[in-house]
Amino acid sequence: MCQEPKSKKDTSFIIKLFKKYGKIKSVLDVGCGVGSHVKHLHDKGYNAEGVEADPAKVKFSKKNYPNLKFGCQSMQTLNMNKEFDAIICINNIIAFNKTNEEVFRTFKNFNKHLKKGGLLLVQTKNAMGLIENRVVGRRVDTGKDRTAMGIKAIIEEKVDVTKQRLIGTRTFLRLKDNKKVGSYTKSSRLYFPQELIFFLEQAGFEVLDHYGGDLSKATLKDKELNKPKMLFIAKKK
Ligand SMILES: C[S@@+](CC[C@H](N)C(=O)[O-])C[C@H]1O[C@@H](n2cnc3c(N)ncnc32)[C@H](O)[C@@H]1O
Fold this sequence. Notes:
Elements: H1 6-21, E1 26-30, H2 36-43, E2 47-52, H3 55-64, E3 69-72, E4 84-89, H4 100-112, E5 114-125, H5 127-133, E6 138-141, H6 144-148, E7 151-160, E8 165-174, E9 180-189, H7 193-202, E10 205-212, E11 229-236
Parallel strand pairs: 1-2, 1-4, 2-3, 4-5
Antiparallel strand pairs: 5-11, 6-7, 7-8, 8-9, 10-11
Helix pairs in contact: 1-2
Bound molecules: S-adenosylmethionine.
């Protein structure tokens, strides 16, 4: 059975938000990864384009979707000489910012690339939700996708309290003999809801609303900020 990809479900929710909070035609996806949200938005009639800091992903997107626009740009230095009706920055992109100055610069750049009244949808991990759910620690991921590939992942997470970052290490083991086949460590800036609101307001946004949880599963009723992820909707003043 063919499962609907997560990015398609994310996009359905994003479109619900666009319809609820604005009149959106043009969209920029910042940190667009391999371009699937841009593609789904385009398929639904939006004038969507994406930027991404990893040149390999930009190359992949351009090859995969030759009729769509992708550029190699970073959120901290975004410069497109263009304004959009909406910017989406989803699935923890802002966690790559290393300092408060970078966070502020990122949001100022988003503001600069929006039309007056334009919408920003920003989604990231919620430090409050992580505390509430006590999800930091060690766990084993034997999800369907991994099992199909014959591997499991040991996920070990700890918090760098001074820098307010989540340090996550994933070690991949082969199911048949438990042999290590790879590992990587990722460091993500954590944000608390009130902190994100403060950054957004300082960068020239009015915060309109928030949602909790995964985009692919969220509904317009999911307002609680006690989940591991949060989404804020803000309007350029
Ligand atoms: C978890 S992926 C999410 C990709 C996509 N938004 C999605 O939801 O599928 C995070 C992406 O952020 C990109 N990224 C990291 N630092 C960035 C930066 N400074 N500016 C723009 N993108 C960045 C990474 O290369 C990666 O593709």
